[in-house]
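Quick question, first post here. What does this chain look like in 3D?
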Amino acid sequence: MAYFRQLDDQLEQLLGLFDKDQKWLICINADPDALASAMALRRIMQRRVAEVGIAQINEVKRPDNLAMIKYLRIPTTKLTQKLASEYDHYAIVDSQPAHNPAFEHYRFSIVIDHHPVASGGGLAGAYVDIKPEYGACSTLLLEYLYNLNIEPASYLATSLLYGIKSDTQSFERDFIDIDVRAFRYLSKFANNLILKKIVRSEYRLEWLDYFREALDKVEILDHGAFVYLGEVDNPDILVILADFFLHVHEINWTAVAGTCKDTLSVIFRGDGIKQHVGEMAKDLFSDVGSAGGHVGAARAEIDLGEQDREPMDLLCERFESKRIKECLQRAKPKKESKSKAD
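> Answer (accepted):
Ran it through. Tokens below.
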């Protein structure tokens, strides 16, 4: 069995798209897998076309993504109509045209992805390679490099390695053997010191005040940690803190709440062993807002404009000790979910 799949026919078709006079723009919804995949496709293109750019539709805010861009020198920029007008051909990796309205303005000549084929089209006339069984798009792009006998340089190998690590959650999410083989192959070329720096870039300096406040306010309820932070600049900090408190040995579930603009958000995390936090979120908040999620991760959002109570009063009622114990009894995971933490 070959180490990676053979792509002779696909490569002939893909390389036939390129010409020395062309200017290509690779479009992404930036996350580690998308950034790495874009860098790999850029490496394939850059000696075959006049110019290759990378542009993302989203604002990059997560510290690990920012660290990845900085330390691996990934030349991505915000996608705008003005920027796009400077290019005559477009490619998309780790996503599909129907995934986001921001992609609908462009006719993509290349679509390479590992998500299920999306309804809504946008694939007609393009070179398409979609493999939903793969754990990461980075694995897909590594196959192209391997078939072209391109040995990835240190920065490219490190980006692809982190793309696989991130999208498979260090092989805790769905993956197949080829993802493992790709990770092993890339390990020979990656810069482990830079990889450690990226992985450890979890928090931003301005978030430390939130950590201090959360540690001061945390309440322990039946092996769970509950925190209400009040007004926050961005609900993302609630996710960070919910994950953080789950690292405490005695804590089985977490709920971190905060208000941003006119919305009260409650982020749930759990170990997936003794409770299903998706069911817990629904049980506690589905009567006042949208609520639900998976066995190990869930969210509730309440429009404060439709409430006649202050957020703290609502939360105190929902997280009253007796109610929490009853809720946890109802939210026990099914047997088949006990070994699967989202």
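The chain has a mean pLDDT of 90.
The radius of gyration is 22 Å.
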